[in-house]
Amino acid sequence: MHPESYLTNLFGLTGRVAVVIGGTGELCGAMAEGLAGAGADVVLVGRNAEKAQARVDRITAAGGKAWFYAAEATSKAELEALLAAVLARSGRVDIVVNGAGINSATPFLDITEDEFDRIVRVNMKGVFLGCQVFGKYLVERGEGGSIINLGSMSGVVPLSRVFTYSATKGAVHNLTLNLAREWAPHRVRVNVLVPGFFPAEQNRKVLTPDRVASIMGHTPAKRFGEARELIGATLLLASEGAGSFITGEELIVDGGYHAMTI
After folding, report:
1. Does residue 192 lie within any of the structural domains?
2. Which domain holds residue 239?
């Protein structure tokens, strides 16, 4: 078999439809580009039409297919409307990325209930609802599918200064493993993609010089990740060819951060 054909069979997503919730952000936007580059019809979901259009333009300029749908990840009604809109326009959904998220660097004793509730609503409830709405469709359709939830190193090992964020990401990891078990008989795979330290909008506020120095001292690669470096892991988890037996996995992309001790 020709090498290109072999890779296409493993990782190709032609004819598949991917819904990327949080696709207007930096990391999920790069993941969306990767999915489109592999042949998927990609739906970017978020609230910022301007950011979405810039990403759609990049995808279409590279020969891919993408469109934007404005929805709030914490609203079940809006996610149900999103699913209906995608089915009406694209006819199916095969891959779902739950990637909406927010962060905060508030000291623990200063965290207000409003801040706590806001982070839990977006980071945990948003993933819960995305899995519930799209998981129901995938299970009932009976053709399998892939759900990729965005986790965090702070969901593996609690990190300082991001208390509520760490708690919600830990919950996302736990939910993912539970759903992987529940839905494996239906061929619906549920995994967590775990970025290490990737500078993005939601964490720039916590990347003070002393924190950057601490991170670099704990990262064998001695650098931050680049958004494009999540694409390979995304395609592995999304593809029915390469990832057909991968479910309940916490796939860490961190330059070796979790492997470092002293």
Report:
1. yes
2. 73-255
26, part of any domain: no
State the CATH number of the domain containing residue 104: 3.40.50.720
Question: In whole angstroms, how far apart are CA 14 and each of 25, 108, 115, 240?
Answer: 24, 47, 41, 11
pTM of the prediction? 0.95
Whether residue 165 lies in the annotated active site:
yes
Bridge partner residues of 156 (DSSP): none
Give the chain's domain count: 1
Beta strand 65-70 with 95-98: parallel, antiparallel or unpaired? unpaired
Bridge partners of residue 194, in order along the sequence? 252
Q: Between 26-37 and 231-238, two packed helices, what is the crossing angle to 10 degrees?
A: 60
- What is the DSSP code string of 80-105? HHHHHHHHHHHS---EEEE-------
- Burial class from Cβ neighbours inside 10 Å (0-12, 13-18, 19+) for residue 26 reads middle
Q: Do the Cβ atoms of 238 and 95 come closer than 8 Å? A: yes
Catalytic residue among 69, 137, 165, 257: 165
Distances (CA, A) of 16 to 6, 65, 92: 18, 11, 8
Q: For 197-209, what is each residue's pLDDT tens digit?
A: 998 765 666 778 8
Residue with tokens 């479910």: 247
Q: What is the pLDDT of residues 137-194, one digit of tens each?
A: 999 999 999 999 999 999 998 888 899 999 999 999 999 999 999 999 999 999 999 9
